[in-house]
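[INFO] parsing input record for Uroporphyrinogen-III C-methyltransferase
[DEBUG] input buffer:
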Amino acid sequence: MADKQTKQPIDDNVKDAEISETNQAGQKKNTEALIWIALLIVILLSVGSIAWFYQQLLQQQTEVDSAVDKQSTELSSLTQQHRQQFRQLNEQQQQLSDRLDEIANKKQFSNAELMKKWALQEVKYLLDIANQRALLAHDVTGAIQALSIADKQLESIADYKLHPLRALIAEEIMSLQSLASLDVTGMAIQLQVMANHVNDLRVKKGPEVTSASSDDLAVTASSDTPAWKQAISDIWQQLRSMVVIRHEQTGEAAVLVPEQRYFLYQNLRLQLESARLALLNADESSYKHSLSTTIDWLNHYFTGQQRDAMVNTLTNLSETDITIAIPDISGSLNWLEEYQQ
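[DEBUG] output buffer:
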């Protein structure tokens, strides 16, 4: 009996130990499972990180390759442009070298030849001046002078090859000398001087102006006149006092206020300027019309000795025929241009 009682606790202890060992074994298995799971997670994370870094590395490599390709293309284009520029520079250098060789192989001009070329350029300039004076300004005298100077310049060159040119110039001088002498420049200066002295002219004084006397025109109001009638009468007297009566007895110019005189002077100056421009353009119709208008205005609006002198000058100018058929004197200029080619 005692043995059974002693054996019973031992069995219980053994069972407890077995249960404890079983629990410990289960816990150990759970721990190992957790460790493997954690290890697997770490491995998966490592693999994912490696894959992500590898993908980023590939992307960066692609971008670098693209940038390198782009720079390589640009560099190739720049290299091609530089080669083309170098080729053009070489061609230009070769052309310059050929030009220098050509100049070096040419015969050097002597001092006499240089002087001749310079003298011919002066002759050409003088012939241009002669044509301009004759055709544009209708200045026959100025054209003859320019042609004469050109002929003397050709005489100093003493080249028999230029004799045909001197013959043409002599013919042109003769044709101009056959025209009636007309001092266009002098006539234009006279018109300009008169225009500058327009303000010195004295305007005619018109007839005396009389005004109705307020005493003669006044209506005497009686003391018993109503106030409203008296007011109307006063207004009427003031209006009548403003009325002026101008007696036109001799047909002289009316009195001009300062503003009117200013415009009169300006219009007279414009007529003289129009006559001067018509003279320079050989427009005889406009020229004589402007002079006639100016003379009429001077006689009608002005008086004095200066007016009389200006009228006499304008009358003489209006009697001058400014229409002159200018001959063609371009033959000598054309011959010289062909000779210099």
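[INFO] The mean pLDDT is 77.
[INFO] shutting down worker
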